[in-house]
Amino acid sequence: MKLNLPRVLPFALTVVIALGCNLASPSTPEPAPATEEAAPTETFTATLPPPTETLTPSPLPPTEPPTSTPTETPTPIPTVESLKASVTADKLICRYGPGAKYLYLIAFNKSTPLRLIGRTDGINDWILVENGQQDCWVNSQFIELKEEGNLRSLPSVYPVGYKIPVSPYYGPTTVLSATREGDQITISWMEIIVSPGKYEDENMFPYIVEVWYCQDGEIHFDTLGSRLPFITFTDQPGCAEPSRGRVYIQEKHGYAGPADIPWPTE
Fold it and tell me: Sign of dihedral through CA atoms 186, 192, 193, 197?
């Protein structure tokens, strides 16, 4: 078939021109992306619950102060004038003072009846015995009572009341120092030389130290002997009454003094 070019060309050109016009038309621009910004935070209004009723605590009833347990007061022992006793040892020495360090006076045989008439101030085993013109002291561990009674019911006669014999040859000493370290008391005094002829025997102490010391809350009495012008002993705290003491010079005829100890508290 033979195309008729003169007719076809004008038509083709028309189509091409139409297409070109369509391609040249500007396209609708896409919208630019939005600038990012913080989205507003949603605001919440907090709804508080209605206030609850505040309870005021009721005041507690006043507490009564604790009742202290009453301390038992020891029942005082009634005082008696004397007590009957007898000797249980084969021989019981009776001394001029209330302790084993004092001078010897006499010895009682076993089963000898005794009349007990006094005791020391402070806890001590020694008891004063009636003995004619010169009363003397025995250790109560070697006697037995012949009647119902208590040795503590005897009257306190030492240091107030009974007097130990006085030496005609020596004068008193002087306490030089008294110190405390804890429960230990150390005292020293001026030396007095007792001549050998004035010794009762080789066992006699030339210095007698009487001490009323505290032990377990009570005052005890003891007699300490020394050959040197110083001594150390124990004194605990905790007693209602103060501790005390004194120093004697001892020779076979009696005692010189006493020299009181200035008791150290610290």
Answer: negative
